[in-house]
Structures are given as structure tokens and as C-alpha cells.
Specification:
This protein has helices at residues 2-8, 14-44, 48-75, 78-102, 107-121, 124-135, 141-169, 172-190, 208-221, 223-239, 241-253, 257-278, 286-293, 295-306, 310-338, 344-356, 359-373, 375-394, 397-401. It is mainly α. It has two domains: 2-198, Growth Hormone, Chain: A; 211-405, MFS general substrate transporter like domains (Growth Hormone, Chain: A). Helix 6 (124-135) packs across helix 16 (344-356).
């Protein structure tokens, strides 16, 4: 059994295998949902503003609940938090699908359901980051994160394609019901995860705001986390300009939507390749390596700003997608090893909020700034800001100080 388990790696461990299967299936449903929800709205109205309203409702609800979700995920068994979130998301998608199929869907109803979906989704990342180290051995933690990233990259292709087929052959409502089914399957798998009761709960719960403050203090105590998040947050805000201005350049200079689709697909191909690399790459200083692997992320924005040929853009996209996968696998692994288990979900919620809260602002500012200094100049400035932020993080002594202690851990027998 040891030989067989060695070939499976992290998947040889039952709890992780169940969690991996659950997240892969629900991620496939997420891919279907991205197509289904958009066309469900467009079936009611052609207004891009109203489509944006429904999508924004989900995102705002997600961000609004993140900190509270971190507190609750540290108080409760995290696999049960994920199970409850999956059930709620499944019920929301069931209701949305039925409304669309029966012709009773309205923008208001879909936006309201999107808020409920976003509230449930806000629990997922904090609970996952607290759970993963409890369901896989330390020596296999990086491999587990790499496998999760690899599966999400693969279904990132398959999900939208499957959703497109379902919408084309039937209705957006049918696709939403398929998405709902994936959440119920995911919940069933999570229900089979077995964790010792005391290993995943806070014995004596403190008042909510006291626990929230304790999570903030732990976030601040870990110097490498807050310094990294501050500058990555600024870099992500700058990079958000590409999501707005990239399609404009693709239409104007590179032949249209096909060029933008090719670039997006190239990022996905790179992400899959990077996921394979992350399965075996074990640097001595994983946090430093993680930050360095984030550098090509800024190259993408610079390449668009410099107006390079489409072939070069595709090559840069593959490189950026690959290195981003390695960056994320290493980052999550370091986070899970360094943050105490009892505060991991709360710290993760501050991490997520700091990393992504400025992205909508960056996207909103891209158009006005481009109208003042030009699209190319805006993208060059954005790419430069991203690279400067990464350079500042690399210079932090706390980033250099973290070593891979798991090398001394024995591989568990299976």
C-alpha cells in the first residue's frame, strides 16, 4: 500500500481525496455558471449595465461577508462550513434555474439570488485555507495545493465550454440546474470528511469582535503576510486595468475578440503547465520563490502597453499563467504552514480582502486614466507599478527568512 500511496501522493490521504473531488466538481459547476448566468440575464435584457448589476451583486456580497466568514470558520468545523456553503449555493442555483426555465426570472430576482450566492461563497476561501492543513500531511501540503490549482486550471477550460454547449442545446436554466447538481454532489463528498472534533474547533468561543480583533493581531504579527498583501493589493489594482483596456486593444489592434480569446486561453494553458511544475518543485525558500514567480504577471500588462505582436502576447501569457500557478501553490503552502491553525481562517479573510478589495477600483480608474494619457501609457504605467510592488516585497527580510521546514518531515504510510 505504501508503493501505491507514493504514486498517488496527496490523493492517497482519504480526507484530502474527498475534499479534492468536492472542489473539482464544484469548480466545474462554477465554469458552467459563468456562461449560464450571463446568458440567463441576456435572455431577459440586452442591457450590459443590468448584467453588470447581477455580477456585482455577487461580488459585493462576497467581499462584505469575508471577515465574518473568517471568524465563523475558525469557530466551527471547517469542512461543515464548506458543506453548508455548497448546499446554499446549490439551492440558489436550483431556484435560478427554475425561474429561468419557467419564464419567471427577473433582474431583481436574479440579483437577489446572486447576493445570497455571494454570501455563501464568501465562506469558501477562509474555510478552505484553514481546512487543507488538517486533511493532508505536512510533507504533502505543497503537492496538495498544486493539485488543487491544477484541477481548477483544467476545469477552467472544461467548465465554460460545457456551459456553452448546455446553453446552445437547451437553456441557461438547464445549465444552472447542472451547476446546482455539482454543489449537491460536492456537499455529499464533504459530509464524508472525518476530522477529530477538537482538532478543528475553538474550545471556548470568545465574543465575535474579540475574535475578529485577535485575527487582525495575528495578521499584523506575521510581518511577511501584511507587507506582502499591501503591495500585492496595490499591484493587483494596477493590473486590473488590463481586464478593461486589453479587450479594447484586442478589438482595435489585434483583429477582435478572437485575439482576446486566444490570449485568455494561453493564460489557461500556462496555468496547467505551471500546476504540473508545482507538483514537484520544492525551493529551500518557498516564500521568496513564490514572490519571484509572480514577476511575469506584470509582464502581461507591459506587453500590451508596448504593443508587441500577438505571438509575443501569447508567449507572455503562457509564461505568466505558468508562473502564477507556481506562485499560488507556494504562497498557500507557506500560509498554511506559518499561520496557527486556530486563527488560519480569520487571517485568510484579511488576506483575501487586502489582496482583492482594490481590484474594482483599478478597473474603474482604467478608462478615465486612459482618456487622459492614452491606453498604451496607462498599461505601461500599470505594469511598471506591478513590478515595482513585487520588487519591494522581494526586498523584505521577512520574505527571505522563511525556509521549507517540511523537508525534515517523514512521508506518512498509507
Amino acid at each position: 500500500m505504501r508503493r501505491f500511496g507514493g504514486r498517488l501522493g496527496a490523493l492517497a490521504e482519504r480526507n484530502f481525496r474527498l475534499f479534492f473531488s468536492s472542489t473539482t466538481i464544484s469548480a466545474l459547476g462554477d465554469g458552467v455558471s459563468t456562461i449560464a448566468l450571463a446568458f440567463a440575464v441576456l435572455q431577459i435584457t440586452d442591457s450590459p449595465t443590468k448584467l453588470g448589476l447581477v455580477i456585482a451583486a455577487r461580488q459585493v456580497a462576497n467581499a462584505a461577508i469575508t471577515l465574518a466568514a473568517g471568524v465563523l470558520a475558525d469557530r466551527l468545523p471547517r469542512h461543515l462550513v464548506l458543506l453548508a456553503a455548497a448546499v446554499v449555493q446549490g439551492l440558489v442555483q436550483t431556484a435560478s434555474g427554475v425561474l429561468v426555465l419557467t419564464g419567471h426570472a427577473t433582474i431583481g430576482l436574479l440579483a437577489g439570488l446572486a447576493i445570497v450566492y455571494g454570501l455563501a461563497d464568501g465562506f469558501v476561501l477562509p474555510a478552505e485555507q484553514g481546512l487543507i492543513p488538517l486533511i493532508v500531511s505536512v510533507v504533502r501540503l505543497q503537492q496538495a495545493n498544486a493539485l488543487l490549482g491544477l484541477s481548477r486550471s483544467i476545469v477552467g477550460f472544461a467548465g465554460p465550454a460545457f456551459g456553452g454547449v448546455l446553453v446552445a442545446l437547451g437553456s441557461p436554466g438547464t445549465a444552472l440546474l447542472v451547476d446546482a447538481a455539482t454543489f449537491f454532489v460536492a456537499a455529499t463528498l464533504l459530509a464524508r470528511v472525518a476530522i477529530a472534533p477538537r482538532a478543528d474547533t475553538v474550545v471556548v468561543a470568545k465574543p465575535f469582535f474579540a475574535e475578529l480583533r485577535a485575527g487582525w493581531h495575528e495578521f499584523r504579527r506575521q510581518t511577511w503576510i501584511w507587507t506582502t498583501i499591501v503591495f500585492f493589493g496595490i499591484g493587483n489594482m494596477a493590473a486590473a486595468s488590463l481586464s478593461v483596456l486589453g479587450p479594447v486593444l484586442a478589438k482595435r489592434d489585434y483583429g477582435g475578440a478572437g485575439a482576446w480569446a486566444a490570449w485568455v486561453s494561453a493564460v489557461g494553458v500556462g496555468a496547467i503547465l505551471g500546476g504540473v511544475v508545482a507538483l514537484r518543485y520544492r525551493p529551500k525558500r518557498p516564500l521568496l520563490a513564490s514572490v519571484v514567480f509572480a514577476v511575469p504577471y506584470g509582464f502581461q500588462t507591459l506587453a500590451f502597453g508596448l504593443g508587441v505582436p500577438l505571438g509575443v502576447l501569447i508567449a507572455v501569457a503562457v509564461l505568466a499563467g505558468a508562473t502564477l500557478s507556481v506562485h499560488l501553490a507556494l504562497w498557500f503552502t507557506v500560509f498554511q504552514r506559518e499561520v496557527p491553525a486556530e486563527a488560519r481562517s480569520r487571517v485568510s479573510s484579511y488576506d483575501a480582502l487586502g489582496s482583492f478589495v482594490l481590484i474594482p477600483l483599478g478597473a474603474a480608474l482604467a478608462g478615465p486614466v486612459a482618456s487622459l494619457i492614452g491606453i498604451h501609457a496607462t498599461l505601461i504605467a500599470s505594469g511598471t507599478i506591478s513590478l515595482v510592488c513585487i520588487a519591494i516585497v522581494v526586498a523584505q527580510p521577512s520574505v527571505w527568512a522563511i525556509a521549507d521546514r517540511s523537508r525534515t518531515e517523514p512521508v506518512p504510510a498509507t
